[in-house]
Amino acid sequence: MTGMADLPIWAALLVAFLVLLGAVLTLIGVLGLLRLRSFYERVHAPTLGTTFGAGSILAASMIFFSMLETRLVLHEILIAVFITITTPVTLMLLARAALYRDRAEGAEFVPLHQEADPGSAGGDHSGRK
Fold first, then answer.
1. Residue-by-residue DSSP string for the chain
2. 2 domain-assigned
3. Structure pTM?
């Protein structure tokens, strides 16, 4: 690209920070996908990584090209709107499909706090004696 040398140092540092932040958030989402145990836990981490990671990278792109072209570049806002709308909707659809599948197969839902303590399964959990 021509003109990258004309980019002010404060803008270059801000763009670099936002790109690195977006990359780190996306990496955290990927690690969450790999490390978490159940499907319902796994589906949450990449959603956050996609939304916030892509948002940071898109903000960096807006700043970079706005500074280079000396006019406001807003094309990335459309991309951010589509990602912000479609990612949570996709999460909900995947979670509902998995829940429907689990109910159809007769799998029993076990809350996370009960998985950690196997002795607490069963009984009245209302807090009354």
1. -TTGGGS-HHHHHHHHHHHHHHHHHHHHHHHHHHH--SHHHHTHHHHHHHHHHHHHHHHHHHHHHHHHHTS---HHHHHHHHHHHHHHHHHHHHHHHHHHHHHHHTPPP--HHHHH-GGGSSS--SS--
2. no
3. 0.69
